[in-house]
Amino acid sequence: MITLALTRNDVADYVSALFLVYIVLIFLNILISWIPRIPYNRWLRAVVDFVAETTNPYLNLFRRFIPPLGGGGFALDLSPLIGLILLFVLKAVVVRLIEG
Asked: Coil, helix or strand for 11?
């Protein structure tokens, strides 16, 4: 019989990896927003929709309080930047608390 013993460091590494995946998804959301028109492809649309549906609820928390800078089609949305900073801080705190 094989038993799995997870240490606090294993759990901390797993939580850190989850934060990293979400951070990468936010970066993908930023890159996708820079592309004005994405040609329609069924698989590409599925990826774009997954990234948007995964990250927009988190980013919308900041969009309520931080309006875009500028106007028209050239407005600069700072919510991903604030969201990323908060995620990096949260990651450091949570991982540090788990490690003990």
From this structure: helix
